């Protein structure tokens, strides 16, 4: 069982190695990187290429670790008891299974994605230490221990908004997805738009890396923005010359809305363009 | 059993433990990386390093460890593709430096000398001023500060020769700050004060049982608001001038504060607090807030934190007109005193190490003004400060 990327996903050598180590040693893998470098997509593609089911747990600022295990719906049970419902006799009817329980229970090995773990409270990772380490937990209401039948492949993504505690990191493998260099980027574009003209890709990438080099941008455009932008460029069928003449210092790139998501960044770019035009007029 | 590698990596400052080493051995046993240096590099990095800011340290340690294993000839080949060396070399120098090179007898001679010394040298070298290695002042080596020097390692296209770890792509992710954001946050947690104040959405177990009993057994559900952190913080940052060396530290403190507290107001001042402060450094001249307005607006239960080195000329605190930027009608000390009188809890965090405090007279004055509630901006000091604030 080895992961080497899929036909929809370009995986670099170091990323493949990290995933393979995770598969072999059954440890959770933490993926960090700039937004838009395909962290979440990785889990989806790993699941697809290994033919496993994917269970996604999206973490929000209000998510508690125990919600991933199970939730006991006491209120419904109390109400049912008043109405004399038969279901009330079995407490199991009121236990709502969480994503971790689901993953542990599965007969086949699954991929569990814990998405954006940094969004939760700083104690969230600490509350999951034991569960991720031993892959088991205890359910107080029913008195049973839920143990993973097959240790799931756990992929955790983080945007670095909060630092993760050391004890948690010790139990995981770590990989930082670096922003792809030019050849990798060309590979990624080819995967997404196989029929795109080579010249267009070249000009677009030139422009894209130029824009990324502008100092002071709040949010540099990343891979996913490039892909969106190319899609727009293709559907618009812009004449080739437009991209060729579009020196970032002179004019803002066509359809910049897909590349720059921040009003201030667009303003910055416009100001730079304006300044360089004035410079030339002199 | 890779114990030497483990120690090299640890001594380079990458925090890894026995557990990771065992993991790495386990991975090797499963043949994840067999007889391939690059695979092994990726594998060990995945397992041993847990934060991208340590990637660069790891790369360096890896290089140190494996340099000894490769044959000297191999390095030699790697380092002397002559045309590459010259090209990269010329690219790195500006015309002025190129002129300086001539003082050493031109590029040709420099390369000659380089080869000669490499032959003489038998082991890896760090520091010093003659041998090829890192951090030295010899003309050859890495990270040195000899303007005529030849940089060794680094860029290159030859895949066999220049290894991934030599590229040190993660150099700028490395930050060896002593107190990280997380540590600060943990210290700040002492300040948390939980209060119930929002819409009701949590089941109040006790209340429900009581009112159900009173209701003769018919269920009556009570809800209460969830507990949220309710501490209110007002913070004054010293910016510019003598605070410049502490920018990184202050940024960390600031980002930790921002995520930790919902009620957080911050203002900036320069050197000493005078009658007005500002919120945005770019608009400090247009948009200023009077300290008197702040005192009127924020109630006494706000916790006040000053962050500054309190290092200036004493008259900047004690005299009217002492400000170096404008004419202040009232000495800065009076403003600080007024803030301390109004707010119940005040702490001054000082990035200057506390054993230097007694040597600066302005620092002593400020310390007296805030009733000795000054704490060094270290983890310990921060904790003491928070304990003072939450008294």
N-to-C span of chain B: 53 Å
How many strands of chain A?
9
Order of helices and strands of chain A: HEHEHEHEHEHHEEEHEHHHHH
Main sheet summary of chain A: 5 strands, parallel
Could you list the spans of chain A in which at least 5 consecutive residues all have pLDDT below 50? none
Strands, helices and their partners?
The complex is a heterodimer of chains A (282) and B (391).
Chain A: H1 13-25, E1 29-33, H2 39-50, E2 53-58, H3 65-69, E3 70-72, H4 74-83, E4 95-97, H5 99-105, E5 110-115, H6 124-127, H7 129-134, E6 136-139, E7 144-147, E8 153-158, H8 166-170, E9 173-177, H9 182-192, H10 198-213, H11 223-236, H12 240-245, H13 263-281
Parallel strand pairs in A: 1-8, 1-9, 2-5, 5-8
Antiparallel strand pairs in A: 3-4, 6-7
Chain B: H1 3-11, H2 18-29, H3 37-48, H4 55-67, H5 72-79, H6 82-92, H7 95-103, H8 106-120, E1 133-134, E2 140-142, E3 150-151, H9 164-167, H10 181-188, E4 194-203, H11 205-214, E5 223-229, E6 232-238, H12 247-260, E7 263-269, E8 276-278, E9 288-290, H13 291-297, E10 303-307, H14 315-318, H15 332-342, E11 345-350, H16 361-369, E12 374-376, H17 379-389
Parallel strand pairs in B: 1-2, 2-3, 6-7, 6-10, 10-11, 11-12
Antiparallel strand pairs in B: 4-5, 8-9
Helix pairs in contact in B: 1-4, 2-3, 10-12, 10-17
């Amino acid at each position: 069982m080895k992961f080497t990327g899929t036909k929809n996903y370009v995986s670099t050598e170091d990323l493949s190695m990290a995933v393979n180590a995770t598969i072999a040693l059954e440890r959770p893998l933490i993926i960090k990187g700039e937004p838009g470098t395909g962290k979440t997509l990785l889990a989806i593609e790993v699941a697809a290429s290994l033919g496993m089911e994917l269970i996604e747990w999206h973490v929000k600022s209000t998510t508690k670790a125990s919600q991933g295990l199970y939730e006991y719906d006491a209120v419904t049970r109390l109400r049912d008891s008043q109405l004399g419902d038969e279901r009330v006799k079995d407490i199991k009817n009121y236990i709502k299974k969480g994503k971790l329980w689901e993953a542990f229970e599965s007969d086949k090995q699954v991929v569990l994605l814990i998405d954006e773990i940094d969004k939760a409270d700083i104690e969230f990772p600490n509350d999951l230490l034991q569960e991720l380490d031993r892959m088991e937990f205890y359910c107080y209401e029913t008195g049973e221990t839920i143990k993973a039948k097959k240790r799931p492949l756990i992929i955790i993504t983080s945007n670095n908004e909060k630092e993760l505690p050391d004890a948690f990191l010790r139990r995981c493998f770590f990989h930082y997805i670096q922003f792809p260099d030019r050849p990798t980027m060309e590979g990624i574009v080819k995967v997404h738009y196989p029929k795109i003209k080579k010249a267009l890709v070249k000009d677009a990438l030139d422009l894209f890396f130029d824009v990324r080099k502008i100092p002071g941008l709040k949010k540099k455009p990343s891979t996913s923005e490039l892909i969106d932008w190319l899609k727009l460029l293709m559907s618009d069928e812009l004449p080739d010359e437009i991209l060729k003449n579009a020196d970032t210092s002179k004019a803002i790139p066509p359809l910049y809305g897909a590349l720059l998501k921040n009003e201030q960044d667009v303003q910055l770019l416009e100001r730079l363009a304006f300044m360089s035009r004035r410079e030339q007029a002199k | 059993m890779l114990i030497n590698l483990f120690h090299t990596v640890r001594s380079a400052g990458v925090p890894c433990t026995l557990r990771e080493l065992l993991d790495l051995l386990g991975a090797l046993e499963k043949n994840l990386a067999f007889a391939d240096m690059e695979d092994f590099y990726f594998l060990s990095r995945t397992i041993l390093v847990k934060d991208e800011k340590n990637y660069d340290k790891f790369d360096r340690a890896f290089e140190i460890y494996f340099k000894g294993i490769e044959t000297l000839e191999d390095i030699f080949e790697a380092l002397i593709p002559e045309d590459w060396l010259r090209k990269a070399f010329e690219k790195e120098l500006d015309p002025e430096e190129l002129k300086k090179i001539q003082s050493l007898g031109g590029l040709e001679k420099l390369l000659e000398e380089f080869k000669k010394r490499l032959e003489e040298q038998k082991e890896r070298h760090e520091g010093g001023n003659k041998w090829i290695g890192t951090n030295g002042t010899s003309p050859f080596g890495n990270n040195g500060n000899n303007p005529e020097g030849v940089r060794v390692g680094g860029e290159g296209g030859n895949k066999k020769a220049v290894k991934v770890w030599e590229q040190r792509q993660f150099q700028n992710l490395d930050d060896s700050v002593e107190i990280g954001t997380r540590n600060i946050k943990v210290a700040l947690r002492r300040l948390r004060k939980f209060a119930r104040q929002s819409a009701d959405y949590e089941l109040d177990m006790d209340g429900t049982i009581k009112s159900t009993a009173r209701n003769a057994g018919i269920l009556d559900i009570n809800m209460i608001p969830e507990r949220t952190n309710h501490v209110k913080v007002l913070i004054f940052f010293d910016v510019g001038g003598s605070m410049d060396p502490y920018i990184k530290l202050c940024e960390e403190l600031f980002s930790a504060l921002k995520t930790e507290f919902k009620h957080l107001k911050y203002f900036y001042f320069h050197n000493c607090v005078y009658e007005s402060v500002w919120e945005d450094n770019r608009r400090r001249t247009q948009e200023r807030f009077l300290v008197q307005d702040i005192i009127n607006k924020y109630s006494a239960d706000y916790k006040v934190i000053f962050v500054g080195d309190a290092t200036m000329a004493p008259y900047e605190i004690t005299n009217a007109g002492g400000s170096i930027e404008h004419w202040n009608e009232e000495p800065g000390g009076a403003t600080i005193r007024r803030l301390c009188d109004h707010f119940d809890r005040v702490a001054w965090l000082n990035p200057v190490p506390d054993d230097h405090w007694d040597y600066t007279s302005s620092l002593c004055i400020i310390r007296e003004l805030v009733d000795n509630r000054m704490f060094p901006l270290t983890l310990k000091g921060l904790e003491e400060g928070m304990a003072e604030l939450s008294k």
